[in-house]
Design brief:
The complex is a heterodimer. Chain A has helices at about 20-35, 45-70, 75-115, 150-175, 180-210, 215-250, 260-285; one strand at about 1-5. Chain A is mainly alpha-helical. Chain A is globular and about 75 Å long. By secondary structure, chain B is mostly helical. Chain B has a single domain (about 1-515), classed as Cytochrome C Oxidase, Chain A (Up-down Bundle). Chain B has helices at about 1-10, 15-25, 25-55, 65-100, 110-135, 150-155, 160-185, 200-230, 245-280, 285-300, 315-345, 350-375, 375-385, 385-415, 425-450, 465-490; one strand at about 525-530. In chain B, α3 (about 25-55) runs parallel beside α5. β1 (about 1-5) of chain A pairs antiparallel with β1 (about 525-530) of chain B, so a sheet runs across the interface.
Chain lengths: ~280, ~525
């Protein structure tokens, strides 16, 4: 079956690393702390704090060692392909995660609410339940929905522009125009931060003035879960972009060797596409 | 092991002792960790099963309080699926895939380490409420059944919260392992090792990984919604706010049904490694098996609601889920015929791995055929949530995957440790397992057909005799597994005779071209496959 040995260079297998198992320790403390906290047990708070500290240490240490290995020239085309495939499949799993929440939205909106409305009025969840969308909250507590043409439309423009600026930065990188790379990234980070600020303001408005909360029936639940999960992803994206910006300023990356940049820009485009779906199906239609 | 340990000390950069296992980036170390973890929890989950059968030995038993009984059946299910079977199959994947495709290691070694160490964390989080209860916090671990159905899971105690966090951690672990395996298969194959030359075990794990990525995020999303329903005032699974408890069932089974194939696929691949060796014939229908994997994987994600025929569903839905479920039996039957074609007129010998492989075909066959009964939407109205269902899925999950991983353990143990196990003890293990298993679960088919419901700590008098038979079988089955532990120790401690490189006369595959045990780093220079 085998005839000879390949002349390929050796694949880089990293040395033993303390970071993964430390990360697990941190997650153990965080999970235990959260489990106690949601049940109102005071010790939970301390465990969450104790878990967050090693988490930060691990993030700096693990990513730091990868950056150091990259600078030392240990990664070649072969290793690079593993990273690309890995990131791609990670994003696929994220697609399934969001698809599930969209599936829940469509299920509640098109199936479970009309089914409930089709029951004998005697079994209605609350008096006067009509089965439309948006549903009122339990016990018919009234709320207003957010108009798509205010902040949400503005946010759409912001995120789409940030997708363009990150691509512009990529063009700069491909042509070794470092200044264009850095300004593109700065713009992208700024647009992301403004998006998040507006989103936070919108949530505040919904809670304080519109009466729209997590508890506002399945409308409120699906609204805040989808937009909240997306906002969390944008936050992660902004953090990752900032790291990439910092690395670019430090002089990392060149035209043929910039997986870190590309991974983050893929992630950013993914978050962008999810927002478009949100705008259409959560805010608009 | 001894040989590997010696190799190891030559490598000055490597930490030793506990640090070796905590920080390792080596696929063999991580594979062994996975397998030992799975074996440990196979014992734990088995003890839960024995508690259940002791409680049901006769009516009116009070070994377990009803609340504790609910916790034990829930943990038995969760532990066996997530902490025993999945880790063991992932262990074989880690240990074997790089060697089978001629790679130096897995593609992403640090993520590999992280994926494993998440498992003990998840296990601790899952059982922690048991100890919290001793401190007067909460009412013990999750008690909803492993399916965690709403509304019970929305109302039940803090054990559910810890189970939700365990699901997040298990999901992260499974996704990391899956991504790593897909990338390894795509990027690390030796020159000339085309996809259609890969051992079927590698193919089977590729399909497993794709399925995990396609469905596990749905369970993570469901668990997140369950958490917000419990503590943050949402109404995803509550009609009081326009939601629907049945939605949880959809989310759970969209994950849960493919999960059956996630458990099954690796062992289907194992069959196609073991049967040709002991029949001394090439694999029959390699291509047909690969295409069957694809067909089963594709169908498995569109049939989930056959678990919900009795939850209420429009007739159109019942018909669709009935026919699509039955359609899965076609590619599955192709696999069976390929296995039979492989051993047909072979020069067979019956060493322990072969015995377990043949046991797999027999028992999983029964599991599959009784599945057709339950897939019939009309018949299911009678059999659902009875002991018939319990017997069916134990034939499908013990008769299939567990027999498969035991066969794999005997098959590759000499390769991993460099020493043979005790063949006589292995044969006893097989026959006692077959007798114990069939006694336990055949009786349950009759109990279910007679109308005994599942998930109750007590039962009506007329079910006594068959329950006693079933419990007696379970005690034999449990005791027989001690022989597996004995054999692992025999090979591990080097008490058996040394194994040759090829181990089995007719074994094929790159892993059998390496010494037994294989060196710590196997294919640093990749072989070229012609």
């Amino acid at each position: 079956m085998t005839t000879s040995t390949s002349a390929r260079h050796h694949y880089y297998v990293p040395k033993p690393s303390p970071y993964p198992v430390l990360l697990c320790l941190s997650l153990l403390l965080l999970a235990t702390g959260l489990g106690l906290r949601v049940n109102g047990i005071g010790a939970g708070r301390w465990l969450i704090g104790a878990g967050a500290l090693p988490l930060l240490y691990v993030l700096f240490g693990w990513f730091g060692s990868i950056i150091a290995e990259s600078r030392a020239g240990l990664y070649h085309r072969w290793e690079d392909r593993s990273f690309r495939l890995g990131m791609m499949w990670f994003i696929v799993s994220e697609v399934v995660l969001f698809a599930t929440f969209f599936g829940v939205l469509f299920y509640e909106r098109s199936l479970s609410v009309p089914w409930l409305a089709g029951l004998d009025p005697h079994f209605s969840p609350w008096p006067g339940f009509a089965g439309g969308w948006p549903t009122a909250g339990p016990a018919g507590k009234a709320f207003e929905v957010i108009s798509p043409w205010g902040i949400p439309a503005l946010n759409t423009v912001l995120l789409l522009s940030s997708g363009a600026t990150v691509t512009w930065a990529h063009w700069g990188l491909r042509r070794d125009h470092r200044q264009q790379l850095i300004s593109g990234l700065v713009l992208t980070v700024l647009l992301g931060v403004v998006f998040l600020a507006l989103q936070a303001q919108e949530f505040h408005h919904a809670y304080t003035e519109l009466g729209l909360t997590l508890g506002s029936g399945v409308y409120g639940a699906t609204f805040f879960m989808l937009t909240g999960l997306h906002g969390f992803h944008v936050t992660l994206g902004v953090v990752m972009l900032t790291v990439i910006l910092w690395r670019s300023v430090k002089g990392d990356f060149n035209r043929d060797h910039h997986f870190g940049f590309e991974a983050v820009s893929w992630y950013w485009h993914f978050v962008d596409v999810v927002w478009l779906m949100l705008f259409v199906f959560v805010y608009w239609m | 092991m001894r040989h590997a340990a010696i190799e190891y000390t030559h490598d000055e950069h490597q930490p030793r002792g506990l640090a070796r296992w905590l920080f390792t980036t080596n696929h063999k170390d991580i594979g062994i960790l996975y397998m030992l973890f799975g074996l440990t929890f196979f014992v734990v989950g088995g003890l839960f099963a024995e508690l259940i059968r002791a409680q049901l030995f006769q009516p009116g038993q009070h070994i377990l309080a009803p609340e504790a009984y609910n916790q034990v059946i829930t943990l038995h299910g969760l532990v066996m699926v997530f902490a025993a079977l999945m880790p063991v199959t992932a262990g074989f994947a880690n240990y074997l895939i790089p060697m089978m495709i001629g790679a130096s290691d897995m593609a992403l070694p640090r993520l590999n380490n992280w994926g494993f160490w998440l498992l003990p964390v998840a296990a601790v989080v899952l059982v922690l409420p048991f100890f919290l209860k001793m401190l007067g916090i909460g009412n013990g671990p999750i008690d909803t059944g492993w399916t965690i159905y709403a509304p019970l899971s929305v109302q039940s105690g803090l054990g559910v919260d810890f189970a939700i966090f365990a699901v997040f951690l298990l999901g992260a672990s499974s996704l990391l392992a899956s991504i790593n395996i897909i990338v390894t298969v795509k990027n690390m194959r030796a020159p000339g090792m085309t996809m259609m030359k890969m051992p079927l075990f590698v193919w089977s794990w590729l399909m497993t990984s794709l399925l995990l990525i396609a469905v596990f995020p749905a369970l993570i999303a469901g668990a997140a919604m369950l958490l917000t329903d419990r503590h943050f005032g949402t109404h995803f699974f509550s009609a009081a706010g326009g939601g629907d408890p049945v939605l949880w069932q959809h989310l759970f089974w969209f994950f849960g049904h493919p999960e059956v194939y996630i458990l099954l696929f690796p062992t289907a691949g194992i069959m196609s490694q073991i049967l040709p060796t002991f029949a001394r014939k090439p694999i029959y229908g390699y291509r047909a098996q690969v295409y069957s994997y694809w067909a089963i994987a594709a169908l498995s994600v569109v049939v989930w609601a056959h678990h919900m025929f009795t939850s209420g569903m429009p007739v159109g839905g019942q018909l669709y889920f009935m026919y699509s479920t039955m359609a899965i039996s076609v590619p599955l039957a192709v696999l069976f015929f390929c296995w039979l074609g492989t051993i047909w007129r072979g020069a067979m010998t019956f060493e322990t791995p072969m015995l377990f492989a043949l046991g797999y075909i027999t028992l999983f066959g029964i599991g599959g055929l009784t599945g057709l009964v339950l897939a019939d939407a009309v018949a299911d109205q009678q059999y659902h949530n009875s002991y018939f269902l319990v017997a069916h899925f134990h034939y499908a999950l013990f008769g299939g995957p567990i027999m498969g991983v035991i066969a794999a353990a005997y098959y590759w143990l000499p390769k991993i440790t460099g020493h043979m196990y005790n063949e006589r003890a292995g044969k006893w293990h097989f026959w006692l397992t077959m007798i114990g298993f069939n006694t336990t679960f055949m009786a349950q088919f009759f109990l279910g057909a007679a109308g005994m419901p599942r998930r109750i700590p007590d039962y009506a008098l007329q079910f006594t005799d068959l329950n006693m038979v079933s419990s007696a079988g379970a005690f034999v089955l449990g005791a027989a597994q001690l022989l597996l532990l004995y054999n692992v120790i025999v090979a591990w401690r080097g008490h058996g005779r040394p194994a040759s490189d090829r181990v089995w006369e007719a074994a094929q595959g790159l892993e059998f071209t390496l010494p037994s045990p294989p060196p710590y780093h196997s294919f640093t220079d990749q072989p070229v496959i012609s």
